[in-house]
Design a protein that fits this description.
4 strands; alpha/beta; single chain; 4-stranded mixed beta sheet
Length: 79
C-alpha cells in the first residue's frame, strides 16, 4: 500500500506515516510538493525510521510524478 505524503508537513508527516505503517503495512511512499519545501530531508527520515522506500516524488504544478532516483536526489542536495 502506498502512502501519499505532503513534503511540507515535515516531522508531522513522518508521524502520520508511522501510524499508517503500523496499521496497514506500507510498501512505499509518494512524496508530493518536494519542490516547494526546504524539508527534503524527510526522504531520509522516512527511509531510516520506517524502512519504507520513497517510490515517487511530485514536483511542479502538474499531476505528474517521477520515480525517485536516490543518487540524483543526493547529488542535487550538495550542488
Amino acid at each position: 500500500m502506498l502512502f501519499v505524503l505532503d513534503a511540507t508537513t515535515g516531522q508531522n508527516g513522518l508521524s502520520q506515516a508511522k501510524v499508517f505503517h503500523e496499521t496497514v503495512g506500507l510498501t512505499g511512499i509518494v512524496l508530493t510538493k518536494l519542490d516547494s519545501t526546504a524539508k527534503g530531508g524527510i526522504v531520509f527520515a522516512i527511509e531510516d525510521s520506517l524502512h519504507v522506500p520513497v517510490r515517487f516524488v511530485g514536483v511542479g504544478r502538474s499531476w505528474a510524478t517521477a520515480a525517485l532516483r536516490p543518487r540524483r536526489f543526493v547529488s542535487a542536495l550538495f550542488a
